[in-house]
Amino acid sequence: MLVVVVALFATLWFPYRFLVVYNSFASNRYMELWFLMFCKTMIFINSAINPILYNAMSIKFRKAFKRLLSCGQKARPNIPTRYTTVTTAVMVDDAV
């Protein structure tokens, strides 16, 4: 799992890092808007795909994520319960 996460991280951050290194050494800077937007999109995709990747590859992450979404409450089994109505008669003594 670590190899996949690191490889995906390196692949998605490569365009931005390439742009930074190129602009550091080049005499004329490369500032095309479409490439800047592409680099930002790749970085955002990297952040968004990490939870999906962890969920797909780790059972422990899935269990912890479910526990987090349920606010720490233990999941109750889906057992049907019977509800009965109890009526009580109240006796009032008028001889007070």
What does this structure look like?
With 96 residues, this protein is an all-alpha fold. Helices cover 62% and strands 0% of the residues. Helix 1 (2-25) runs antiparallel to helix 2 (33-57) and helix 2 crosses helix 3 (59-69). The N and C termini lie far apart (81 Å). The mean pLDDT is 82. GO terms for molecular function: thyrotropin-releasing hormone receptor activity.
Give the secondary structure arrangement, pairings included.
Blueprint: H1 2-25, H2 33-57, H3 59-69
Quickly describe the structure:
Residues 1-54 form the G-protein coupled receptors family 1 profile domain. With 96 residues, the chain is mostly helical.
Tell me the structural class: mainly alpha
Q: How many helices?
A: 3
Percentage of residues in DSSP E strands: under 5%
Task: Calculate the terminal CA-CA distance, rounded to whole Å.
Answer: 81 Å
Assign a percent range to the helix content: 55-70%
Radius of gyration: 30 Å
Query: What general outline do the C-alpha atoms trace?
Result: elongated
Oligomeric category: single chain
DSSP strand tally: 0
Order of helices and strands: HHH
Overall average residue pLDDT = 82
Low-confidence stretches: none
Question: How many strands, which pairing sense, and closed or not: the largest β-sheet?
Answer: none
Main attributes of the structure:
mainly alpha
